[in-house]
Amino acid sequence: KIVDPHAKSGGLKTRFSDVAGLHEAKVEIREFVDYLKRPTAYTTLGAKLPKGALLLGPPGCGKTLLAKAVATESSAPFIAVNGTEFIEVIGGLGAARMRDLFKEAKSRSPCIIYIDEIDAIGRKRSGGEGGGGVGGGGGSGEEEQTLNQLLVEMDGMDSAQGVIVIASTNRADVLDKALLRRGRFDRHVTIDPPTALERKEIFELYLRQIKLDKNPEVYSQRLALMTPGFSGADIHNVVNEAAIRAATTEKKIVTVDELDWALQRILAGPEKRSRTLS
Ligand code: ATP
């Protein structure tokens, strides 16, 4: 899926201001905006720009949102793929797809490739990689061939070429070490589940976007304290459910009643998923 911010319609809109909390992660990932905007400022000084960043963390906590914000803020097209797409194809097509992906990105550079769930293709290879080259795994599985191709593509890229690969996973422990070497995904950004303060910020972000009877700040603190273990996606869901509830009950404005109703509804879901409460 390609989103081109230069396109007249359907362009990207996610900015860093749309990502609540995640203050440290934002600082770390923001560097990539500058690499994409002013690569020669670095390369003329002899610096080699990072080609990849790995976002580590549980689902629904803003990894995709952050990657999109990098693309928007650097006016670069954003090509999003999922690791599972490469292994669902038959007969060596995963590697060919990977080649095409990089070809496409280079033709649109500066450009961001976002690979969600990279663990689907980036698991430790059976044969091990040995010294440091690529392709030493020796396996013939779709997964290994795709991973080898990804390594070949990243190694073949000139760091000033303006293609940055951002990948995400919540299973860093299963990743092949070759992926984490210098010149590949050597920048790691941890995206933890939101703290109480971050949940408050996320609630405020979304409460500001609905018709609410009071200032978002009136509700956000209490809601944040009632939602340990919630992801940003869960929080967005609570606010949206509250607005939907108000509409279905033909109310003109969202009040504490709808927020509590939505909270109970979402709580019933995540509790079944046996969340770890923080
Ligand atoms: P996955 O691993 O499932 O792809 P993710 O970490 O990439 O998860 P996102 O797709 O970035 O999660 O987040 C899902 C949705 O949750 C976002 O579209 C947004 O509505 C909301 N959300 C999550 N985290 C935040 C945040 N920090 N600030 C604002 N909204 C957030």
From TrEMBL:
Domain of life of the organism encoding this protein: Eukaryota
Domain AAA+ ATPase: 49-195
Cell compartment(s), UniProt: Membrane; Mitochondrion
Family from the record: In the C-terminal section; belongs to the peptidase M41 family. In the N-terminal section; belongs to the AAA ATPase family.
Name recorded for this polypeptide: AAA+ ATPase domain-containing protein
Organism whose genome encodes this protein: Plectus sambesii
Residues of the full protein shown: 294 to 571 of 798
